[in-house]
Amino acid sequence: MRADDQQWETSVERPDGTRRRATIHDVAKLAGVSRQTVSRAVNDKGEIDPATKERVLEAARLLDYRPSRFARGMVQKGAVTAGLVIPDLMNPFFPEVAAGVLEAAEQRGWQVVMWDSRIDEARERDALDVLSHQADAIVGYFRSPDDVLARHLGGVPLVLLERGPQQTRFAAVGIDAAAGLEQGMAHLVGAGHRRIGMLDGVHGPGPRRAAFLEQVRRYGLPVDDSWIALCAEHSVAGGEAAMERLLNACPDVTAVFGFNDLIAVGAMRVARRRGRRVPEDLAVLGFDGLSLGELVEPALTTLHIDKRRLGRLAVEQVARLRAGEEPLRGADAWVVPELVVRTSA
What we know:
This protein is of the alpha/beta class. It has 3 domains: about 5-65, 434 Repressor (Amino-terminal Domain) (Orthogonal Bundle); about 80-175 and about 310-335, Response regulator (Rossmann fold), CATH 3.40.50; about 175-305, Response regulator (Rossmann fold, 3-Layer(aba) Sandwich). It is built from 12 helices and 14 strands. A 6-stranded parallel beta sheet has the order 4-3-5-6-7-13, sandwiched between helices. Helix 1 (about 25-30) crosses helix 3 and helix 10 packs across helix 11.
């Protein structure tokens, strides 16, 4: 039976009833040929009967099959395109990560296509749907679980940023929050602080909160989850609102750890409005190492992340996947924050 003698869906049904994008195997099955024959037909190779090629291309059209640019790149020379998904381009942290990706990609002669997901899981999925047909590999920040990501990848390699290698089956580059908080909390406790609060991100418990609570237990501090205020936004304004709530709930707090530097700056602004001197009455510790931390008064003590190295490592992971090598694991796939002591703590 010819492919055009029957109506076919443009996707393939899974056992659970959901749909997935067609693969080379589905095209081969529909056309009644081998996967090698499909590859020759869609890549316009010779050594294939014209009628067979026409049948394969018709099957590919009916199934809306578009071969992965990554798979073609394995056998064809040419420019490599990496897709980069960033959650918030207004946050100065992420352009620095993007700069690291761009620098490393340029050194390899690659090009980069960028997508701002705006911390929206639906936009994340849209990014994967689009980039899986435009890019040879994808690097980025994703909140969705592995199984959701896999459904939208179409076989394109993925490198996750800030998700530890033990937290995903995909290649990843993580930030060692535990090592960073160990330095930061040792600094605060060493300065005599026992009542230390945290201004956490809005997206639920994560590595930074877990590391904070681990250090709290380590030092036996009289601190629990009630000493953690959530920020509606990862911004100065978000830090201000959360700091107001923390001071209302725990007025005897003497130090605070901000999820990021923007939040920490917001905490300092509230402290000053309430007549608290920084660091004499309230010490403030950030986490990011943004350049603006040097410009505020007092200058922000922070756990500095080498953001460009984070981006460069992600490109290294892509290169290893393209070469058929195992991705970096263990310490090689982590960026360890370093304590930078200024005048806020």
